[in-house]
Amino acid sequence: MFTHLFCLLFKVSGCGIPNYRPNTGRVVNGEEARPYSWPWQVSLESFFPTCGGTLIAPNWVLTAAHCITFHTYRVVLAEHDMNKEEGPEQFIMVEKIIIHPKWNDNCVSCGNDIALLKLEKNAIINDKVQPACLPQDGATLAHKQPCYVTGWGRLYSGGPRATTLQQALLPAVDHSTCSQSDWWGSSAKTTMVCAGGESKSACHGDSGGPLNCQGRDGKYVQGVTSFVDGRGCNTPQKPSLHPCGLFHPLDQ
After folding, report:
1. Fewest C-beta atoms under 10 Å: which of 12, 39, 56, 100?
2. In which domain of life is the source organism classified (predicted)?
């Protein structure tokens, strides 16, 4: 199911180039994103906002498996300021939840922290809502390749959640570095992307959202925000981990 779906998604054209160009400056601790500049960003809600997600097709959203703790969800597209409705938002209920068959909710660091959400109806694709580009199977990131994490997570460890969409530059960290004992060690799997680890990382509440990385012809979502160091966000040598195993066959 997962493999077949993503083989079809690779054929999506015109993705990865937002109509509203992101502000991609090198802000150390993140900044408010330009509205609608990450048009595949989704807010996942069950009574209240819980996680982020990525629109990968008109009726499919990619998120983290650990975000799924309830039975009823809706997604909000074209969201920017959570404190008010600004007009372009689309609210769509989730019809079906598919969690990675190898996900273990007692072991987030074991990997496979991925879920697919089928929407009750197609999102309306426009200049503020677009599906993400996904990388080809086997694609890898160069060390320090620029990537951005986006979401409404906590602004800092123990701090308040953001009310407007935030972005932070998180350069990719290659596996040989990320898997060193003083970094993540064996918790860094080859099916994960490490990003950040200096003065910034994803934070609690960013979970499920996209890791957006620059490619030659646009931006690609290389992984799902999964977890950060238990000591808090922005811990040196503890980049956030983003499972990317969904882009490989899942029936092995």
Report:
1. 12
2. Eukaryota
d(CA 54, CA 74): 13
Residue-wise pLDDT tens digits, 114-162:
999 999 999 999 999 999 998 877 677 888 888 888 998 877 666 778 8
> Is 113 assigned a catalytic role?
yes
Q: Which of 190, 77, 200 is nearest to 146 (CA)?
A: 200
225 within domain boundaries:
yes
The model's pTM: 0.83
In this structure, what CATH number is given to the domain that contains residue 226? 2.40.10.10
9 belongs to a structural domain: no
Residue 179 lies in a domain: yes
Is 174 in the active site? Answer: no
Catalytic residue among 37, 43, 113, 187: 113
Sequence-ordered list of residues with C-beta below 8 angstroms from that of 48, at least 6 positions apart, any chain: none
Task: Report the distance separating Cα 227 and Cα 64, nearest Å.
Answer: 10
Number of domains in the chain: 1
Backbone angles phi, psi at 230, to 5 degrees: -65, -20
Q: Is 71 a catalytic residue?
A: no
CA–centroid distance for 235 within its chain:
20
- From the candidates 179, 207, 226, 240, which is the catalytic residue? 207
